[in-house]
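pasting for ref. prot 1 ->
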Amino acid sequence: MTGFVLVGSQYDRVPEFLRREVEGFPASPEYELYDEEMRELPGLACAALSAFLERLQEAELREGLSESEARSLDDAYQAIEALSRGEPEVQNLVQTEIFENFQALPKVWKAIEARLGPSATALLDDWKKRNADVAL
């Protein structure tokens, strides 16, 4: 895996970044749900990543993952951490298109929270404060 570094104007490059850095994501049912043009929208790419990560995290807890799936899950967490260190527009994507789209069961949410990196955890904490009325 290459290093997770986003430079310059990051927002428009998020879909390409996710396709490049998250093994299995481009061929996932969550990503393939959208047509080619829609896949280039940063918000939809992040929403698809949210569903992808949630599915893999739930599967890991339920039955375990193959080696390839485990790498994909790790890559997804690393990508979220990298995006969480990005420019404010990109951080907003993490909060509004990844965190807000999770539909996980409580035990899956706990597993997700436990695996988030420090920058993503800080964004999640901020998102929770601003959305205290939303049940996780």
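and prot 2 ->
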Amino acid sequence: MKSKSATQHKPSSTKTDNGSLAQRAKRVPYKYEMCAMELLERGSEGLWALDALRAFGTTCLNSDISDLFNNRGVNFRREPYRHTTNYQTTVIFTLYSPQAKEDVSALVIIVNHARSKRGVAPLAKERVAMYLALIK
């Protein structure tokens, strides 16, 4: 009797001639990529925890920022952000934004590297120029 493997062969992970994954472009963006993109889109306006939850589903923005800072070399402005709840109490969050144009460039490099790993084209030069213009 022939035994069956507990795991099934998945065609989406089949290697092609050049060693890349056959359907890599269909992979969803990495979490750090989504965080970096959201920071780029917002520029000096910044990103805080509740917006990050809505934008890409993270509940630990501080950990995502820590990863980008400690492991990927991006510096951030960290400013207190006051939010008033439905019960009229004030909660203080941290608002994160790239510190300088060099940090925007670092985020672009991070995003483009992640996009290439997924088989997606890099960000357009016009879009990168727009991100650089958003930093004061």
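The longest strand covers residues 76-84.
The chain has five helices and two strands.
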